[in-house]
Write a structure and sequence with these properties.
Elements: H1 2-21, H2 27-30, H3 46-49, H4 55-65, E1 71-76, E2 79-84, H5 87-96, H6 124-134, H7 140-164, E3 167-170, H8 171-188, H9 201-209, H10 214-225, H11 227-233, H12 240-260, H13 267-276, H14 288-319, H15 321-335, H16 344-349, H17 351-363, E4 370-373, E5 378-379, E6 386-387, E7 392-395, H18 397-400, H19 420-424, H20 444-461, E8 463-465, E9 490-494
Parallel strand pairs: 2-7
Antiparallel strand pairs: 1-2, 3-9, 4-7, 5-6, 8-9
Subcellular location: Endoplasmic reticulum membrane; Microsome membrane
GO molecular function, one term: monooxygenase activity
Main location: endoplasmic reticulum
Length: 495
């Protein structure tokens, strides 16, 4: 009798668990929104959870499974998430009705991941005043002031390339070193020495942040999908040395500048000024930890996005010699006017360079998806689809920017997609590599200039070609949230 009762109890428990897991699975169907069929515990993201695909590839597959669908409903385990494909609705979310989608919806755990409380992730209450106060450091005027620092790093890059010419190299590693040096001097006022020293602590930290080992993968998945569990066990998954490095670096740099009355008018100085005048950001306290988090995101965004764009561009130039030669011709013709000296004005005049960088960002957006979370109940205009506060929105920019409807022959690298006539012929929201609206990438202007300076310096005295290690298929790392090549970006550098 006891065995029967135990069996009935277990069955009842399992049935209850099953219905709990599928409790939301009719949500998108009730809204007349199409989407893949969810399964208990996994929702529609089983392939993501088991790292079969990266999020870029997963969203592209879903996008292609439901062609022409303006919206697609998916589930992260049991949570409904809306994928937006319609250009007008994307514009509504990012710009017109931004007040209803201020948050990115990124989960934060400041107890275990204090450095994640940065401008990219912050909720509206802290994001808005910080964004307003930090914007001045990214203006064109400030960029012009910092330009000589970029050139100093570019000259170090040229010296480095002279030592590896005629060799097959992972250019992704080289551009990461260059970008690390740029961020070190522009954000921290320090020499990172990533190009000069293979043991550079800044380069080591950069590698550590984006390392796709089992521990980082587990940390990311538990943090994203089971925040309560992460709160319990996160201490054992995070790299405390990484957190401490940036906290100590921030405190030491601030202390040194105060003690020696150093004013560089850079990112740290701006943060120090905000901290000294807390009334200017309302009731938000700019703690040492929050300050370190802003420097941390400047570091990771500044070196990762720019270095990947540079290396991806060089990869395409190695494959497409006509484009490579045309770009080198433009660069050298412009530099001949200044005796080979790279100037701010000269970079701005390089039209084909701008098109080539845009086409690289089109084909390889560093962050393949834009995420938002509704901060109010919302009904999408001209539809009957209504969502509650807290609903997550994903905009699959990698899929959109590879859609032949907007970019014919999308796998072909063609900078002429960004001549003025071509731009005007397609919807504005089809190119979103830096986002759009009030919460677009604050450092987009800096990132573009850093990328262009690096490319100009490389192509001024060198050219690139494929080598035996070049992965022409550009296989993506399925464990990375960012658009990351699995096999590096190997090319031959030729002087």
């Amino acid at each position: 009798m006891e065995t029967v009762e135990l069996f009935i109890g277990i069955v009842t428990l399992l049935i209850g668990l099953y219905y709990y897991l599928i409790r939301n699975f009719n949500f998108w169907k009730s809204c007349n929104v199409v989407g893949p069929k969810p399964i208990p515990f996994f929702g529609t993201i089983k392939d993501l959870m088991f790292s079969k695909y990266s999020i870029a590839v997963y969203l592209k597959k879903v996008y292609e499974e439901f062609p022409n669908a303006p919206m697609i409903g998916v589930y992260t385990r049991s949570e409904p998430v809306l994928i937006l494909n319609d250009m007008d609705q994307i514009k509504n979310v990012l710009i017109k009705d931004f007040k209803s989608f201020v948050d990115r919806g990124m989960r934060m755990n400041e107890k275990h991941l204090p450095l994640n409380a940065h401008l990219f992730n912050l909720e509206a209450k802290r994001w808005r005043p910080l964004r307003t106060k930090l914007t001045p450091v990214f203006t064109s005027g400030k960029l012009r002031e910092m330009f000589h620092l970029l050139i100093e790093c570019a000259n170090q890059l040229d010296d480095y390339l002279n030592r590896v010419e005629e060799m097959s190299v992972d250019v992704r590693d080289i551009t990461a070193k260059f970008a690390t040096d740029v961020i070190g001097v522009c954000a921290f006022g320090l020499q990172a020495n990533a190009l000069a020293d293979e043991e550079s602590i800044f380069r080591k930290m950069g590698k550590l942040i984006f390392k796709t080992d089992w521990k980082n993968i587990l940390k990311f998945q538990i943090h994203a999908l089971s925040p309560r569990l992460f709160d319990l066990i996160g201490h054992f998954l995070v790299d405390h040395g990484l957190n401490q490095f940036f906290l100590d670096l921030t405190r030491d740099t601030v202390e040194y500048r105060r003690k020696n009355h150093i004013n560089r008018h850079d990112f740290i100085d701006l943060l120090m000024a905000i901290k000294d005048q807390p009334n200017k950001i309302g009731d938000i306290e700019l703690t040492d930890s929050l300050m370190a988090a802003q420097l941390f995101v400047f570091f990771i965004a500044g070196f990762e996005t720019s270095s990947s764009t540079m290396s991806n561009c060089l990869f395409e130039l190695a494959l497409n010699h006509k484009i490579r030669d045309k770009l080198r011709k433009e660069i050298n013709e412009e530099l001949s006017k200044t005796g080979g000296v790279i100037t701010y004005e000269g970079i701005k005049k390089m039209d084909y360079l701008d098109k080539t960088v845009n086409e690289t960002l089109r084909k390889y957006p560093p962050v393949p998806v834009i995420m938002r979370k509704s901060t109010t109940p919302y009904t999408f205009p001209e539809t009957k689809v209504s969502i509650a506060t807290g609903t997550r929105i994903w905009i699959p920019i990698f899929a959109i920017q590879r859609d032949p409807k907007y970019f014919p022959n999308p796998d072909v690298f063609d900078p002429e997609r960004f001549n003025q006539d071509a731009i005007e012929s397609r919807p504005h929201m089809t190119f979103l590599s830096f986002g759009d609206g009030p919460r677009n990438c604050i450092g987009a202007r800096f990132g573009r200039m850093q990328t262009k300076v690096g490319l100009v310096k490389i192509l001024q005295n060198h050219t690139v070609d494929v080598c035996e290690k070049t992965d022409k298929n550009y296989e993506l790392d399925q464990n990375s949230f960012l658009l990351t090549p699995k096999n590096g970006v190997y090319v031959k550098i030729i002087k």
